[in-house]
Amino acid sequence: MQVFSNARRASWLLLFPHLRTSEAPHSTALSLFSGLAQRDSRQVNTDPVHCLSKAFFSSGMDTVEATPSEDVKELYDKMLDSVKVKRSMPPNAWLWSMIANCKQQHDIRLLFDILQNLRRFRLSNLRIHDNFNCNLCREVAKACVHAGALDFGMKALWKHNVYGLTPNIASVHHLLTYAKNHNDTKLLVEVMKLLKKNDLPLQPGTADIIFSICYNTDDWELINKYAKRFVMAGVKLRQTSFETWMEFAAKRGHTESLWKIEKLRSESMKQHTLITGFSCVKGLLLERKPSDAVAVIQVLNQASRVNFRSLYPSGLWKLLSTKKKRTERHYQPL
After folding, report:
1. Is the torsion defined by CA of 37, 17, 248, 254 positive or negative?
2. Cα gap 273→20, rounded to integer Å
3. Cα–Cα distance between 162 and 252 in angstroms, integer?
4. Within 10 A of 148 (CB to CB), how many other CB atoms are there?
5. Tens of pLDDT along 251-306?
6. Which end of the chain is more exposed for a tag (fewer CB within 10 A), N or C?
7. How far apart are CA 236 and CA 227, in angstroms?
8. What are phi and psi of 58, to 5 degrees?
């Protein structure tokens, strides 16, 4: 028992180096990213997003003669007639229905055209200077992604636009999720440029998506570039983000980076998950410290038993334990 206790203390001292030093968290982040930056030889293009070629974001429908969906065209004509001829604001239900029915590039073109007309009507006739609420922008971005009209989806993220849209981080997440589903780091980079340019706040959920894209595309430099942005902005990363980041470091064999990431993790959360814990085990094995790795596994095993037990009522746990003991006795060698 004493041996296990000593091993446990040794493993935690190894995994939590901040317990042996008075180094400030901010300096920890700086030292981490200064080291990681040396590995980043990537040259990122800083040209404005609006100068990008339209062909990259387009679904390719512009090259084929096509017409809008019948339902979308009908709703567009009704709303246009309302603002141009009848000089009255059309019902909100028409606009929401149009967004829900957008299925292709030409539908999205009509959607953005009617948004511009509605905004103009609100300004000139109703004297409403405020943009539409952020929920509308979120659904417009979602429709753009669904229709494959990513160029229009990017337009929805601009803070100053002629469509009356109010961009928010939820709109960004729709585009980032598309990038994740298609392992598209190029789209990721361009969306993040827009996010910064339009002062949209970074969120923990944003980091989850970005880290996942970088892990799936095996882009170690890119994950560290954006991790630095999140940490320096004071965003509290979720356990899932640390899991992806630490597993990636262990997978690449970057043990020095792994321990620095572990230090950041331990400053914001007390307990390991199995993924972060076993990432540390991999790091110790890479450094040829098998005894320390075993000690960590023992600690993780003990912690997982405690957490597992807390999920069940005491009576049920006693019943499970009794059945386990009976099974062990039944299968003991004679």
Report:
1. positive
2. 22
3. 46
4. 19
5. 999 999 999 999 999 998 888 898 999 999 999 999 999 999 999 888 888 877 65
6. C
7. 11
8. -75, 155
